[in-house]
User: Fold these one by one.
Assistant:
Number 1:
Amino acid sequence: MTVPLMLLGCGRKRGTPEQQVVDLFIESDGDFLAFRPDTLTCPSRALVRLTFHHGGKFLSARHNWVLVHPGQMEAVDKDVEHDEGIISKDDLRVIAATPMCDKGATVMMRFTAPAPGDYPFFCSTPGHAECMNGTLQVTG
Amino acid sequence: MKCITRVVAVLASIGFALTLAAPVFAQLKSPDDVKTALRLLVQVSNDFKRQITNKNFARVPHEFMEYTEAADALRSAIKNEPADFTAKVETRLKAAVAAAQRVSDMSAKETDADKLMAEHTKAVTAMNAVFDLFPATLRPDPNTPPPGRGGRRGSV
């Protein structure tokens, strides 16, 4: 009698609910220095599966998608300026970052959405962030 | 009667002359492609400026490479236009690319951002001469902020 009750207990979802999965898509506006769309939304703590596509056809400029904590975009961008925009995996200001993409390429990545708030994202190729940036709105 | 015939003939001549004189750009076959290519030239030119201002001179040759790619996009966009028009564009485009190359070459040795900016200004003038060959509706406005959220940088 005890064993079936224990098994029943295993099937119940107590405490933290199962992590919600959210798929997001974003791309560069062709060869132009802009993201399309430039605003994304997801709930806090969700597992985000983000697909980034480099929509360029003509220019060899590389792009990526870098999500940082509020107020950190400019500093992170400045720090990688002389490293071809390559983001260090150890940078605590960075929440998530895709690898650099060549034109026409698509990459996917996963991360857990942070606490509710507005988080800036940008392309870290030197000189791009000024125009190529947007906001991830994380809802409660 | 003769007078009316003459007036009609004169008006027809004027109309014919105006048709011949109409700018070739009124009949561009791929205006959207041309608009994109011209915007790319401005975008890359602005990138040149940004790298020079930030004293990131090592990136300038990369911007030059992109400039040649944007120039190729324009060549591709007008390839089906009349030969005399493409020849005119090619002449000015070559001059613009050569001016951009001078900025790139200078950046290898020059560390004075002001001198590089002066050379960049010449390249912009050469680029604007290319734009003059196209209708105003297709020309990018260098004073218009680029697409994206540039104005909001650092606001979040």
Number 2:
Amino acid sequence: MISLGNTKQLVRRALSHSSKEAQVIITGGKSQLARIGKNEVYQNILGKEYSVKIQVADGKRVGNSSCNRFDGDQLKETAEKAELIASHQDNDPSWPGFCGSNESIIDENFYSKETVDACFEDKLSKLGKIFEDAKSKGVEIAGAFSHGDQMKALGNTKDCFHYHVHTEASFTFSIMTPKGGTGWAEFHSHKLKDINPNRLYEVALEKALASESPKTISEGEYTVILEPPAVASLLRFLAYLGFGGMPFIEGRSYFSNKQGQKLFDEKISITDNAFQSESFGCPFDMEGRKRHCVELMSKGVFMQPVLDTVTAQKLGRNFTSTGHALAYPSTSGPIPLNLALSPGESDIESMIRETKRGILITRFFYDNVIDPGKLSLTGMTRDGTFLIENGKVVSGLKNLRYNETIPQIFNNVVSLSKQTWSLRGMGRNRVPAMKVEGFKFNGVGE
Amino acid sequence: MKDILRKALEHASDLGANYADVRFSHLETESISVKNGSVLGVDCHVDWGIGVRVLYDGAWGFASNPDLDDPERMFKTVQRAVDLAKASAKVNSSIVKLVDKPKVTDNWSSLFHRDPFEIDLEQKLRLLIDCSNVMSMVDGVCITKGSMDFMREKRFYMDTEGSEIEQKVLQSGAGISCMSLNGNEVHSRSYPSSFRGNHQMGGYEVIESMNLREMAPKLATEVVQLHRAKLCPSEKMDLIIGKSQLVLQVHESCGHAVELDRVLGYEANFAGTSFLTLDKWKNFTYGSEKVNLYQDGTTPEAIGSAKYDDEGVPCTNTELVREGQFVGYLKSRDSAIFENGLSNGAARAQGWKNVPIVRMTNIHLASGDETLDELISSTQRGILMEDNSSWSIDDRRWNFQFATEIGWMIEKGKITDMVKYPTYTGITPNFWGNCEGVANQDEWHVWGTPHCGKGQPMQVMRVGHGVSYAKFKEVRVGVSK
């Protein structure tokens, strides 16, 4: 990472090259990634990259330019380019101006130096025994083991300065067996030492073996138990199609004109909370405003979208920015990056035990939106799809194609797990497992 | 620059690397977005740096570095790549082998007439704002958008086998779109294709040839008409697809399926594998005899083109599916050994900070013999779909589902009613096996998909596809209800 002191200097240097009002955003970090395939490390990558974006505002005319180098000449060229772009623009009546701030936000709470500096030889040595075990069992492992740090810093000519760094370690594990079984496990933390590759291997292997010789099930509606990665996939679409202020204002969101209405089952409560455990959320947005925890859905009732300054102004006097601006110019508008779906009282084992006939789904793959206004989606199951009969997992199933709407899914929720998991979404989401009735499938994989 | 790269290679050899290559990339982009007649943003970006890839004891290591001015940093980057390879070698049991390639010293540039970076910004903005205003004049149009994207990249490649290659590419793209809302019913129309338009190798002449202003009124009229259109029927019928939709069909169900690294299992954790397993090579009916798919990494106007890939292998024209029979994969030097032992120039990396992996260059569906009119007139009951709006395919590239912005019913050989929310689904070899015809060269056009994602960290690659129109029988349409 670039230290706090160096970042402040860099911001000052970048701002000094502009004769107008200006803002600087620095992003980037360092990462190590080992990719695994066929029980071997086949890519082992080390990279470090930072980008500096300079925004110049000449009145209400705004220009942006960015580069990946911080030497004086390049910063000067980037600032001049931003000024040139601004000079060619018409006034942007919605331009809110740069944010002034008396309170600088400095966040280094989720930074683990050991996670960044970990020796790759030590890290990989843990995998050697796993590879040997996989070979002896005749299964194939694929995976990705990464760790590194990320930073965001923002400073402007109105004396606003914020700085956020965090570390992140991640392990995703797929296992394939010769009899068509597949399994998946993943874990993410800001500390590399929290990751236990052996435990993840066991989880993925158990799934892979249990899903061998998968059966075909006919299309139709089924009770499903969605494990956390599958739930996280659904939330990702809510983030940019539903809860963003821009589609809400423009009438494109399912939630447009439905503030205060009960739209989902009362078990569904969703907040955007950058401050929740292991979310690594940035405490400020790309306008420099403090990010707020926002209650988006309370007991099935839609409360409000997330907002930046522009969308808040458009909504009227009763609304202020919730601190969710992306970097200007943003084609999508503000987006929640740290959604949290409230837990229930159940657990995956109980959900299975209480299911007469249903399907256990590890995760979805290649989901995509069909009709954004109705929040209708399609996608495939992947890496462990199981048939449940009379309260027990009885066999693996071939992957299935679903066609569903999020309102339908969230109105048919039977139960949620008490435990929640932090998983990747648009940013990072915290989700429980979820049991849903009447989930529609219309196709089968190979 | 070349001296720095040569020193990096020498240092890798001194450290005991069996093989090393270095790539320098200098990228410049300009991205313009207009919304509802106003400038949403103009963004310019410049980045450059060096990536070093080494083989040590038969294992790969890769490190990258943006700081070219500091020789010590460069040596440290090389050292790290070697250290990573050493660490991998300790846990790996097999050895990476590279198939042979020619030693090359060359210099190549893509062709263009008008440098888009020299065109006045106001001229570009004016065109997009004009289009936006024209679309907004149609009652019922709520949101209009326009975009232009330009990129130029200079690359140096060198390896310890003696190749030294310099390449320059310049690409341009643009698109316009409009949206209409009625309650929760949302429709979009885009031109020349959805998701920021079409992209080609070339300069501003690419934009001028699109006739964006002339097409704007038609788009706006259609998007409003969609609200009154019938819902896509839910049944099995003949399907004709073209333009950007056929591009996505080729891209997802053929292009990714023939990537040899997926087939071998190296992408199993992320992008997935492929149903086109090694036993199917030259032994599998992928489609009907009307189906001829090939990679051409040299198509002049296609954005996946270069003279050499990122392993210094000449880009080629390679058959993938010949008259329906599966005959070839996309290959890199380390994967080709599992097929016929020759790379076909399909190893590509995004920029300097990523490692080359097997990627599509340009994957084309060869034109057929029939006219588009003949494809339509031979259809008793069917549907014509254009302009992709949604795509999904499983991790083995077997089961897919697509949606398009617009469709038209075909009854007794004639196009009749417009239909909304068109969708279709299929199983890849069954679908292509039911291909009844491909339109001729008059309809064949090269499209650019600049957002193809694969690999970890995600590498976004620019890929070209040449297609015309194709007709498929007994396709399940209207599947999302």
